[in-house]
Amino acid sequence: MLTLEDVWKIYRIGKVEVHALKEVNFEVEEGEFIVVLGPSGSGKTTLLNIIGGIDVPSKGKVLFRGMDVTSLDENGLTMHRREHIGFVFQFFNLIPTLTARENVVLASELVENPRDVDEVLGIVGLKDRANHFPSELSGGEQQRVSIARAIIKNPPLILADEPTGNLDFETGKKILKYMREICKNEGISFIVVTHNSAISETADRIVHLKDGKIDKIMVNEEPLDPDKLFW
Amino acid sequence: MLSRKVIRDISTRKGMFFGVTFIIFLGISLFSSFYISYLNLSDTYSDFYEQTDFEDAAIEFNYAPVELLKEVRKIDGVGEVTGRLAVKGSMKINNEQVVLLLISVPDGEQPKVNKLFIEKGEYIPEGAYSSCLLINEFAKYHGIHAGQIISPELNGQKLQLKIAGIVYSPEYIWIIEEDNFFVSPRTMGIAFIPYKKLEELGYKGKINQVHFTIYDKDRRDEILGKAKKVFEPYGVKNFYTREQQPSNQALQLDLAGFRELSIMIPGFILFISIFAIYVLLTRLINEQTPNIGVLRALGFKKNTVLFHYLKHSILIGFLGSLAGVITGYILSVLMTVQYTGVINVPYYVTKPHFEILLAGMFTGILFPSIAGLLIAKKAADIQIVDALKGSFEPQTKGFEIDRYIPFFKMSVLTRLSLRNTFRNRKRAAYSMFSVVAAIMLIMNSMVFMDAFEEALDLQFNKVLNYELEVRYSSYVNSSAIKEVKSIQGVREAYPLITTWMLIESGDKSKSVSLIGMDNQRLYNIYDLRNELHMPPPDGILLPSSVASNLSLIKGQKIFFFTEKGKRESKVYDVFDHSLTPSAFTSLDYLQNLLGVDGYNTVIVNVNPEDEERVQEELEKLDGVLQVNSKAVIIDYINQLLEFSYAFIFFSLLFGSSLGFSAIFNTTSINIMERRRELATLRMLGYTTRQMGFALFVENMLIGILGTVIGIPLSYFVAYLYLMSFSSELFQIPFVIYPRTYVLSVILIFVILAFSILPGLRYISRMNIEKVTKEVIS
Ligand SMILES: Nc1ncnc2c1ncn2[C@@H]1O[C@H](COP(=O)(O)OP(=O)(O)O)[C@@H](O)[C@H]1O
Ligand SMILES: [Mg+2]
Questions:
Q1: H/E element, A160
Q2: What are phi and psi of A15, to 5 degrees?
Q3: Which of A42, A52, A3 minimizes the C-alpha distance to A22?
Q4: Does any ligand 1 atom lie closer than 6 A to the CB of residue A81?
Q5: Considering chain B, what is the average pLDDT of its residues?
Q6: B34, B108, B128, B408: which one has the fewest Cβ atoms less than 10 Å from its Cβ?
Q7: CA angle B310-B314-B316, nearest 5°?
Q8: How sure is the predictor about A82, in pLDDT bands with cuts at 50, 70 and 90?
C-alpha cells in the first residue's frame, strides 16, 4: 500500500548539512505491522513525518496506494492525512480542554463515515472514563485515548512515534497489545517507531534505521504476543 | 467539537478573557453613550429651534424708529422679522437687588421669530398690558410662580407685572449675557412684556433689536450685511448669525466636545484592546502549539485552524460590544436627561439610534478581529513538524538586564524576575504600553481639574481683587465714589467704565466688552502666562481671540461705533485672555472715545465681615442698577462645574479600570506561561512568599518604566487636549499641578499592586503535582 522510493531528507543549518534520511527504500503491505527500530537521532521521526504528510522529503517519492504523496499541495496533504493516516504520539498530545470522548469526536468530525465513538472507546477499554479530561487520566489511559482518536477515522494506516516511550513497562505492553489487536482485527497497517528493540519482536517486519539509512529489513515469521514481551 | 474548545479555552482563562472583554466593553459603551448623547442633544436643540422658529440672524443697535423694520422686510431673502425693545431694569428679591432684562413681545400673539415655549400658565392675553412672562430658570431659582406679581424698576419707575406664564426661550438655552458665561439666575432674570407697556417707559415708537429668519441660507452673510446697513446710522452694537448667537454658540461648542470625546477616548481604548487581544491570543496559541500540530496532523485545514482562533476574538468582541451597546444606550438616556436638566430646554429627545449601536457592535467586533486575524494567521501557518515539538515562537533567551545593574548583589531569583520582565519583548512592550495608556487617561482627567482651578484662580484671585462691583444705570461723577467710600466697612473703591461695543476693521466687525480703568489696585490684567499688562494710555489692549477674529495685529487702526458716531482708535497690544475676552484701556482714553464724563461702575474692596451689609447699603444708593458679589459668582461657577467633576470622576474610573484590566491581563499571562518554571522553583524549595516577591519586582519594574515614558507623553497629550478645548469664548491655561503627578503615579502603582493579586493567589495555591503533570504531558 505504501512505497518509499529513494527518499532523502537533508536539513541545512547554516553551512552544516544534516542528512536525516539517506536513500530510504521500502514497502508496506496492507494490514502489516511494521516496527522501525533505531537509536535516537537515526531519523525515525523524520521518516514517519514524511509518510504522514506533515513533512516533505528533499528528494525521492512516497507512493500511497499508487498516489504520489510528494506531489500533493498543502490542501492535498491535508486530505491525505484526513483520510488515510492516524497518528499516535509519544506525548499523547490530547487537547487538555476537551474530555476523552470529545478528543475522539474531534477527529471523527473530519471524515464522512467515522466509526462509532463508543465502539472505539470500547476497543481501547475506556468507555467508563469517556467524560474525564486528559489531566484526570493516567499516561496509559491518555495514550489509549489517542489510539481511539487515530482509529475513529477508520484510516488504512496508523503511524505511532514512540507510543510507549513515555509509559512504564506494563502500561507500554498493554498499549502495544491494543495496537496489535486492532491491526489484526481491523486490518489496519501500523508503522510503530521505537528505539526499544524488545518491541520489535511483536512486528511482522522490522526496519533497522541507522544514521538515516536502512541498515537491514528483517521479516518476523512468528510475531510475539505483546503479553510475552520482556524488557 | 472545535467550537466547544473555544468555550473551554475561554472558561479556563476566565479572568484574562474577562479582562479583554471588559476593555472592549469600556470602549464601546463610552463610544455609544457619548455619541448617542451627542445626537440626542443635537436633536433636542434642532427640535426646539424648529418649534420656536429660532432666528437666523439678529442685530442690536441704539434706539431706532420701529418703521425701519419695513426696510428689513424688503430685503430679498429675509423671512420673518421681529423688532423689539430689550432694556435692563432691576428688581428686589429677598432684599437682594437683581437685574431683570425686559424684552418686548407682540400684544396677544407670539413673536414671529424666537417664539416662547410656555411651561406653565399661558401667553399674555390680548390687552393685558400689565402682564409678563418669566424665564423658567429664574422663576425656579427664586420660587416665583405664574399668577404672582413682580415689581421691577425701570428708569426710576416702578412697574406692577402679573406673571401670566413661565417660559423657555430658544435664545436662552444657555444664558449668556455680554460674553459672560456665568450668568447666575440668582442675580439676573429675563421677563417678556407687551411692547405697548415697554414703549410707554420712554421708548415711544422705538426698537433696539431686530431678529429675523432668512430663507435664502446661502446668502445669509450678505443679507445680514444689508440689514445691518439699515441700522448703521443709529449705532450698531452687535450683530450675529444663528451660529454666532451666544447661547447657540456655547451649545454647539459643547456638542463638538461631546462628539470629539466620543471618538477620541473610545478609539484610544479600542486601540489598546488590539494589543490586549494580540497578547492574549499569542499566549493561548503558544500554549496550544502542540494542539495545533495535532489538529493539523489529524487533517484539519489551515483555514479551519485560522477560523478557530479567530472565533476567540470574535466572541470577545461580540460579548464586549453587546454589553457595551446595551450599557451605552442606557447611559446615553441618563446623560441626555442629566444634561438637559442643567441647561434650559423644556424637554429632551432620546432615540435608540440603532445605526450607532450597530456601528458600535461592528467596531467592537472589528478591532478584536484584526488582532485575532494577525495572530490566528500565525497559528495556521505554523509548520506541523515544529508545532508537535512545542512552542512555535523561538524561545528567546531574554534580555539579561541584570548584567547591567552591577551594584547590587542579587539573588538568582531576583535575576530571574528581571530577565523575565524582558523575556518576551513584545509582551513587555505591551505591559508598558498599558501603564502608559492608563497614566495618560488618569492624568488627562486630572489635568482638566487643574486647568479649571488655575483658570478660576487666575480670574478670581489674581485678576479680580475686589469683592463687590457696583453698576450704575448711567454715567456718574466723582461724588459717587465719595459716597461709596463713606460707607463703613469699605476699604478701597475705584471707578471703571464697562461697556459693550462694536469694533470694526476693514469689512469685519465684532462686539467686545471694553473696560476702562485708572489703576490696577483692584483689577489686574493678567494673561494666561501670568504676565501683567497695563491699561494703555492710548489705544486698546485687545484679547487675542478678538484680534485673530478681526485679523488685527499690534498698531493697527480700528473703529468703534458709539452712540455719538464712529470713532477711530488703534490696537495698543494683543494679550492671551483667560475666561472672558474683555478689551482694556485707560479710563481717560475711554471717556474721550465715548465722549462721556465720569464712569458707570465702581469696584469695591471690603472687610469680609461687612460684605453683606455693605452690599445692602450700596444697593440703596442713587442710580445704582446692580451690585455684583464675586463670592456669588464663584458659588455659581462651582455649581456649574459639578457636572464636569462628575465627568472627570468617571474618566478617572475608566482610566483606572482600563489600566487594571490591561495590566492584570499581562500579569496573568506571564504566570500561566511560566507554570512549569514556577512549579520547578516550588519543587526546589522556594517559598510562595519569595516567588510572590519576584513577581512583585517584575511588575514594579514595568510600572517604573511605564511611568517614566508615560508622564512626558501625558504632558504632551494634555497640552493638545486642552488646546482643543480653547475657543473664542474662553481659553484654558495649561498647567499641571504637582499633586496631579503624584496622584497619578500613586494610583498607577496601586493598580499595579492590585493587578498582581490574582497571580499571588495562584502561586500560593499552586498544586505542584498537578502542574508538573499538566506541563510534562
Ligand atoms: N528541524 C530540524 N532541523 C535540523 N535537523 C533536524 C531537524 N529535525 C531533525 N533533525 C536532525 O535529523 C536527525 C534525525 O532526527 P529524528 O528524525 O528526530 O530522529 P529520531 O526520531 O530517530 O530520534 C537528527 O540528527 C536531528 O538532529
Ligand atoms: Mg523521534
A1: strand A157-161
A2: -95, -10
A3: A42
A4: no
A5: 83
A6: B408
A7: 120
A8: confident
Nearest to A95 among B291, B388, B770 (CB): B291
Element (H, E) at B483: helix B478-485
CA angle B603, B609, B612 (to 5 degrees): 60
What are B204-249's pLDDT values in tens digits? 999 999 999 999 888 888 999 999 989 988 888 888 999 889 889 8
Residue B701 one-letter amino acid: L
Q: Which tens digits make up the pLDDT trace of B137-190?
A: 999 989 999 999 999 988 888 899 999 999 999 999 988 776 566 677 888 899
Mutation test of ligand 1: which of A42, A49, A208 has the most ligand atoms closer than 8 Å to its C-beta? Answer: A42
> A50 is written with which cell numbers?
514524511
Considering CB atoms only, which of A52, A97, A98 is closest to B297? A52
Ranges of H-type helices in B184-245: 195-199, 220-231
The three three-digit cell numbers of residue B353, written as one number: 439610534
Helix, strand, or coil (residue B531): coil
Grid coordinates representing B603?
469696584
The whole-number pLDDT of residue B417 equals 63
Contact A98 B1 (CB under 8 A): yes
Beta partners for residue B157, in sequence order: B154
Q: Which grid coordinates belong to A63? A: 507512493
Closest partner CB to A82 (pick from B12, B290, B299): B299
Rounded to two decimals, what is the model's pTM? 0.72
- Kindly report, residue by residue over A20-35, the tens digit of the pLDDT: 999 999 999 999 999 9
What is the per-residue DSSP string for B216-233?
Answer: -GGGHHHHHHHHHHHHGG
- Residues 6 or more apart whose Cβ sits within 8 Å of residue A230: A198
Contact indicator for B587, B599 with CB cutoff of 8 Å = yes
User: What residue of B is the nearest CA neighbor of A97?
Assistant: B8
Measured CB to CB, residues of chain A less than 8 Å from chain B are 49, 52, 54-55, 74-75, 78-79, 81-83, 85, 87, 89, 91-98, 102, 105-107, 109-110, 134-135, 139, 142, 149, 153, 166
Nine-digit cell string for B26: 469600556
Q: Which residues are within 8 A (CB) of A77 and not within 5 positions of it... i.e. 6 or more apart?
A: A53, A54, A69
- Which residue minimizes the CA distance to atom 8 of ligand 1? A46
Among the listed residues B545, B531, B541, the one whose alpha carbon sits nearest the alpha carbon of residue B731: B545
